[in-house]
Specification:
By secondary structure, the protein is an alpha+beta fold. Helix content is 36%, strand content 24%. It has a 6-stranded mixed beta sheet. Strands 15-16-14-13-17-18 form a 6-stranded mixed beta sheet, with helices on both faces. The chain has a 3-stranded antiparallel beta sheet with strand order 4-5-9, with no helix packed on it.
């Protein structure tokens, strides 16, 4: 029996999942889980990257106690990275929700207008895109002497193997990949005066990085959404939502779609395993999680969902409003956007779920208009797929048949990419 290990790290937790083929079916078992989250440091939001590495190693050790692990790979969220001077880390490792890019976005667009960026990369605008983070680093003098910027999973695998390799799917979240060459766009990096050595050739999922404790370390689709789409047991080519902190809504396309309609709708083109993912990064369970921490810290989400369904509050808000990105108080942010404040704490959750469903409806209408195709099904995977109330609201709002699969799709996709090697 050949066993592989998927290490899937999200913004709120990480998990180690062992996978193997049995009677032609992919089996998997979670063997380690740990908490994750942004931390505040000197007025900035950061990741404790040393803690993440410790947890990655602890989970591998746990897996190797009971299984002969042939290979492993790591996926995480996109956009964020670690700067290196040779083998030395440059701290802090900023988190994408930090506001440091706000003061440089206009300057970046004055050098390379967003229309030009989109024409080259097909990458949607997000204030936290890597392109803006790196330019903020440049302005702060943080890139002096830097030899590498490594996306979080690349960095973790480098620390395991001593080998630095940049992976394609995660690179497409940076806003720096040319959609024709599928490599870093040196025209953009030169105009922004970003150091050339930071942008080497990219490597594809399935390639070997190195070895750790006798286990081969491979590249999966290291952007978690890339792996999640690989993990969906989809019939034909239909819509998907990878539902976690964010909702990644999209469809597979043969080539990137970079017309003016896609730019205005803020759709992105990201790398898949042999295909393009035409998708939009929209609000997800972040607003629900923050409301829970603030209003119901001692209640589990299943109980909250039941009470939200019983609520009669029917007002909605723009779930993608910028004020919801990182507010000090999520309920206060809701109050500021609503003409009538909720009366009970469960009203907030009902409002959140209804607002999310409406945001999915709008995104799907844009997608179908821009692709010129109509889809009948919507596959939902990830943590949000467990929320039957939200699934029903989504089906009602979109008119699509919702197929909710409360599976570890990201880990399954990670495992599948590895197992194809054997």
């Amino acid at each position: 029996m050949k066993y592989t290990l998927a290490i899937d790290i999200g913004a709120s937790s990480g998990r180690h999942i062992v996978g193997w083929q049995e009677n032609g079916e992919l089996k998997n078992k979670e063997i380690y889980r740990f908490k994750n989250g942004v931390e505040e440091n000197n007025g900035h939001l950061i990741w404790d990257i040393d803690y993440l590495l410790e947890q990655v190693k602890a989970g591998i050790a746990e897996a190797q106690k009971n299984y002969h692990i042939e290979s492993l790979s790591i996926d995480t969220w996109g956009v964020d990275y670690v700067l290196l001077k040779g083998d030395e880390e440059l701290y802090p490792v900023y988190a994408y929700r930090d506001s440091r890019t706000e003061k440089v976005i206009d300057e970046v667009h004055s050098i390379v207008p967003f229309e030009e960026l989109y024409e080259h990369t097909g990458c949607q605008f997000q204030p936290f895109n890597t392109i803006y983070q790196l330019y903020a680093d440049l302005k702060e003098g943080r890139l002096e002497g830097v030899t590498d910027f490594m996306m979080i999973p690349e960095y973790l695998m480098y620390k395991l193997t001593g080998v630095k390799k940049k992976e394609f799917t995660n690179a497409t979240t940076t806003g720096l990949i040319n959609h024709d060459s599928l490599e870093f766009d040196h025209d953009i990096t030169e105009k922004l005066r970003l150091p050339e050595q930071l942008f080497p050739k990219l490597n594809q999922p399935g390639e070997t990085v190195g070895y750790y404790n006798g286990t081969e370390v491979l590249l999966c689709a290291t952007h978690d959404t890339g792996s999640a789409v690989e993990g969906i047991p989809m019939e034909g080519n239909e819509l998907y939502i990878s539902s976690g902190t964010w909702s990644l809504l999209g469809v597979k396309t043969e080539k990137p779609i970079t017309d003016i309609g896609s730019m205005k709708a803020n759709y992105s083109n990201e790398g898949g395993v042999g295909y393009n993912r035409y998708q939009k990064n929209i609000m997800g369970m972040w607003i629900v999680n923050e409301l829970q921490k603030e209003l119901c810290p001692d209640e589990n989400i299943a109980e909250i969902v039941i009470k939200a369904e019983e609520s009669s509050y029917d007002l909605t808000l723009d779930a993608n409003h910028e004020s919801l990105l990182a507010p000090d108080s999520m309920s206060k942010a809701f109050d500021d956007l609503l003409i009538e404040k909720p009366e009970s704490k469960y009203d907030y959750f009902r409002c959140a779920f209804k607002s999310l469903a409406l945001s999915y409806k709008q995104a799907i209408e844009e997608l179908e208009h821009n692709t010129g195709k109509t889809y009948s099904k919507l596959y939902i995977v990830g943590g949000g797929a467990k929320n039957q109330f939200l699934n029903r609201l989504t089906e009602q709002a979109t008119g699509k048949k919702v197929i909710a699969l409360p599976i570890e799709a990201t880990a399954i996709g990670n495992l599948r990419i590895q197992l194809e090697r054997y």
